[in-house]
Amino acid sequence: MSAAAPQFSPPIDRHAWLMLGGAFATFGLGACMLHAYSVFLLAFIAEFGWTRGEASIAYSVSQFVTGIGAPVVGLLVDRIGTRRLVLMGVALLGLGLAGSARADALWQIVLLYGVVMTMGVNCLGMVAFAPLLTRLFVRRRGMAFAVVQGANGFGRAISTPLAQLAVSLLSWRAAYLMQAAVIAALIVPIGLIFRGADRVARGGASGGAAAGPGRQWTLREAIVTLRFWLLFTVYLCTGLGSFFVSLHQLAFAVDMGFDPLYAAFVLGVGALLSTPGVILTGTLSDIVGREVAGASTYGISILGVACALFISGPGDHVLLWLHACLFGVTWGARGPTITAKTADLFPGGNLGAILGVITIGSGLGAAIGSWGAGVIFDLSGSYRLAFILSIVSYMIGAVAFWSLRRPVVERGA
Fold it and tell me: Minimum mean pLDDT among 29-38, 90-99, 240-249, 297-306: which range?
């Protein structure tokens, strides 16, 4: 690793920080549009009379598409480069938003939000940026991934209160049109930011540094290892733990008697904490180790979900704030740590494809969790069981990730 340091000249450094800032802004933009669905869910129920389970289908499909689409994104970024992939994603996201404003049936929301918008956001996510950041930030990989992943929480934090305000003042259709207009206005600036990304990906100084000596893993080699499937399990359980709760947080708070705008504000503040939480966790993972940093976030998330279990009415403001802040500060915090661990274990030019396949686990977990929580509420009238399943999932994920603390000796490695 030390031999690679001289290859980072000052111009490359400045370029690297520009790319990192652009990745943060682009990822945050996509996350903002996607996470606003928790607000639109209540609007759909009010206008169309859908059940919680029905209204959750589009979000569940979205998370499933996120998972199965990740390998496609990984393969594309390895072949066509970050800039083209990002521009394609922005175009798909804008198309899905504009179309959603005219939707009047469940299948249309499922198609436009669950497929079109989600694939657009997939092209703006961590899988799309991981190969580029791996080449630009060799020794500070955890920090770089953490900064970009922090955009997820930032987007989630501002999406809920802003979307709730837009829907309350105007309508959900007008809110979708406003989002589409924002996307259209940002296409050119985004394209300019990543103008030099493909040159780096083709093997500039940073690219050579990132590759370095040692084994260059292929997807076929990685997929037969134990550590690959341990990482898959970590992604699966993290998705389950997070999405048994996240989509239905606002609906849960409103059910408990809290004012919708107040609840959206509290949850938004909690989500905003994820940006420093993610950056701190990813940076610490470079210092204390990936497993120690990751395991601590699971414990904090479990405490946050436990606080929600004890909320019984609109007077439990402290519990709502504790839930929002503890759950929010660790939202996405495991992402950069797990991504950095994947890059540590499976270096080489096929990282995008390898990370994409592993990320299927996250999509499956998120799809099952978000839809399952809605069905559980429809059947029982409560989110209690969903929150308990969230805690159990986090526990299993923590054990699986901690088991990666010792190197696994693979045959033929």
Answer: 29-38
Token reading at 29: 């933009």
Q: Report the chain's mean pLDDT, rounded to a whole number.
A: 82
> What is the average pLDDT across 207-214?
44
Q: Which fold has domain 9-405?
A: Growth Hormone; Chain: A; (1.20.1250)
C-beta separation of 206 from 8 below 8 A: yes
* Backbone φ and ψ of 140, nearest 5°: -120, 40
The residue among 406, 235, 219 whose CA lies nearest residue 337 is 235
Which among 124, 115, 156 has a CA at the least distance from the CA of 243?
A: 156
Assess contact for 241 and 370: CB atoms under 8 A. Answer: no
CA distance 3 to 307: 48
Q: What angle do helix axes 360-380 and 384-402 make, rounded to 10 degrees?
A: 160
pLDDT-derived band at 353 (thresholds 50, 70, 90) equals: confident
Per the CB < 8 A criterion, the answer to whether 311 and 256 are in contact is yes
Q: What is the dihedral of CA 217, 221, 223, 225, to 10 degrees?
A: -100
Single-letter residue type at 234:
V
319, 311 Cβ separation under 8 angstroms: yes
* Residue spans per domain, the chain: 9-405
CA 386 to chain centre: 20
**Distant-in-sequence, close-in-space partners of 327: CB < 8 Å, separation ≥ 6:** 245, 246, 249, 270, 301, 304, 305, 308
Locate 321 and state its tokens. 């704030």
Nearest residue to 356 (alpha-carbon basis) of 78, 169, 13, 115 = 78
60: CB partners within 8 A, 6+ apart: 114, 367, 368, 370, 371, 374
**Cβ of 413: how many Cβ atoms within 10 Å?**
10
pTM of the model: 0.68
